[in-house]
């Protein structure tokens, strides 16, 4: 994920450096500022974006803020019109971060505790409940393939136990159309 994000930031820098801003270099209208990019500049961009100084650019983090400021300063230098919030190069996006605390995440069945990472895995959830368990296979509904593991099962007030992965014969491409009608996921 971090390597992909580093690639995305570097790609943004390269693309914005190649595209013409409000002013173009004469004779380069078709290719933007392609003559202005060099191996040395690319190495400079990548060296900074991938540097230990940015501490992995986790979302959110001071390192990510520094990377964004670096990109914004180059966009200003290249005379791009800001189109972010309040006329800036930045756009605020609300994020939600879920975390699991392994020592506090467990399932108790008949007095025996099963701990996260050792005996089971679970999606992040901050809950403390006690309810009957109900097995729902993979938990995916794919109407076009007549897959509905909930048919004839009442999950109301119960904890669903879900097998990881897609049902046999189903791939990511099968999840198209309207969620809740054409398909649905265990979550």
Order of helices and strands: HHHEEEEEE
Shape: elongated
> What's the end-to-end separation, in Å?
22 Å
The biggest beta sheet is recorded as:
2 strands, antiparallel
Q: Enumerate the strands of the largest sheet in spatial order, edge to edge or round the barrel.
A: 1-2
Q: Please identify the structural class as seen in this structure.
A: alpha+beta
In short:
By secondary structure, this protein is α+β, with helices and mostly antiparallel strands.
If you had to describe this structure to a student in words, what would you say it looks like?
The chain is of the alpha+beta class. The chain is 24% helix and 10% strand. The protein is built from 3 helices and 6 strands, in the order αααββββββ. The strands form 3 sheets. The chain has a two-stranded antiparallel ribbon. Strands 3-5 form a two-stranded parallel ribbon. Strand 1 and strand 2 form a beta hairpin. It starts with a helix and ends with a strand. The relative contact order is 0.09.
Keywords:
alpha+beta, two-stranded parallel ribbon, two-stranded antiparallel ribbon, 3 helices, disordered N terminus, single chain, 10% strand, 24% helix, 187 residues
Draw up the topology in text.
Elements: H1 2-18, H2 39-49, H3 62-77, E1 106-109, E2 112-115, E3 133-135, E4 141-142, E5 159-161, E6 183-184
Parallel strand pairs: 3-5
Antiparallel strand pairs: 1-2, 4-6
Helix pairs in contact: 1-2, 1-3
